[in-house]
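Researcher: Quick one. four chains, 240 residues in total.
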Amino acid sequence: MNKDRCLLPATDDECRKAWLTLHDTLDIVGGKWKLVLISILRGGKMKFRELAKEAGISPRILSKELKELEANGLVSRTVLDTRPISVEYELTAYSVSLNEVISTMYEWGQMHRQKITGKA
Amino acid sequence: MNKDRCLLPATDDECRKAWLTLHDTLDIVGGKWKLVLISILRGGKMKFRELAKEAGISPRILSKELKELEANGLVSRTVLDTRPISVEYELTAYSVSLNEVISTMYEWGQMHRQKITGKA
DNA sequence: CAGGATCCCAACCGATACTG
DNA sequence: CAGTATCGGTTGGGATCCTG
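Model:
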């Protein structure tokens, strides 16, 4: 069995590790908001409020999501010395590493939709 | 902006559609069980009970998940004429189309883990 | 304005019991 | 054995209020 197509490595331990690795990706890409936020931030840096409004997300969740994105190095947080204070969020250069993941998923989704909805 | 790296097409409508397409993929790949089940079924066809035990999943959820996988053409369901009845589940040929998605995600996860955990 | 605290509701999932 | 029905616990998100 080819390792690229295999989700069932030889040992249980390997299997668990493979699953965890996949899970890392899912935590970022699979959540309800992360991809939405990333997609919005592709349009440029944004303040907390703007982001909340644009995404239609409550501040509590937005704050949590942004923290996770920041912890994963995908988003940078910059406190501006304004009065009152404001904070800008921006995609990092590293975030483009996700592009391949996203586009692969997008392409499969497109292909799949054709297959399911009676194709063309 | 290159369309491959763009999740923000020109119009809101296009954007919504792109998101739905991505969502189709997430529904399958992002759930708690789908990938687990697919991975187990990579080992060959399996009966309902076996699958439940192997995955550690309750019958109610298993049934639901399998229905969704079947509806998406990823798994086939075969009723065997035994007494009592038994049902075999098996990956379809189509299911291999997911391999690229999965391996891309896996590879990103691996790369990312290095980046986050202070790399090697 | 940022974002934490609180309260509430909805979705989800597991365990178990039950039917065909 | 396959799969559904019921119930109870847990998680996650929305709304709102509040403080720095």
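Chain A has one domain: 8-92.
Researcher: Thanks, that's what I needed.
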